[in-house]
UniProtKB/TrEMBL annotation:
Keyword annotations of the record: Ribonucleoprotein, Ribosomal protein, RNA-binding, rRNA-binding
GO MF terms held by the record: 5S rRNA binding; structural constituent of ribosome
One GO term of the biological process aspect: translation
GO CC field: cytosolic large ribosomal subunit
Pfam families, sorted: Ribosomal_L18p (PF00861)
Keyword Signal tagged: no
Complex and partners: Part of the 50S ribosomal subunit; part of the 5S rRNA/L5/L18/L25 subcomplex. Contacts the 5S and 23S rRNAs.
Species this protein is from: Roseovarius halotolerans
Function per UniProt: This is one of the proteins that bind and probably mediate the attachment of the 5S RNA into the large ribosomal subunit, where it forms part of the central protuberance.
Name by which UniProt lists this protein: Large ribosomal subunit protein uL18
Family per record: Belongs to the universal ribosomal protein uL18 family.
Length: 119
């Protein structure tokens, strides 16, 4: 029986998340979600189950509403790094979910690294 795209995506997401759990040394997880219209990023503390910081293209103060480009992804990456610094976080695990590490996902990670977040 052939798997649907959604099932394959969910399998890939669980595989990535399980690998992160094995190597995570108490660091927060930088989780990225990409849709066709928007991009959102969260810093999650899995030990306590709380979100420490977040950034999204839906935030009006960033001026990226409705933009889903590489430039918007880079802006989100640098924004989440700044908010992480304010929260006292200097390093995190990058959780790409079931998405492949290229394009907008890679742009978020690169921008966060350039802004000083150790991934």
């Amino acid at each position: 029986m052939a798997n649907s795209k959604r099932k394959l995506f969910l399998k890939r997401r669980l595989r990535v998340r399980n690998k992160l759990r094995k190597v995570n040394a108490g660091r927060p997880r930088l989780s990225v979600h990409r849709s066709n219209k928007n991009l959102s990023v969260q810093l999650i503390d899995d030990l306590n189950g709380v979100t420490l910081a977040s950034a999204s293209t839906l935030e009006k103060d960033l001026g990226l509403v409705g933009k889903n480009t590489l430039e918007a992804a880079a802006k989100i990456g640098s924004t989440i790094a700044e908010r992480a610094k304010k929260a006292g976080i200097t390093e995190a695990q990058f959780d790409r979910g079931g998405f492949l590490f290229h394009g907008r996902i890679k742009a978020v990670a690169d921008a966060a690294r350039e802004a000083g977040l150790k991934i």
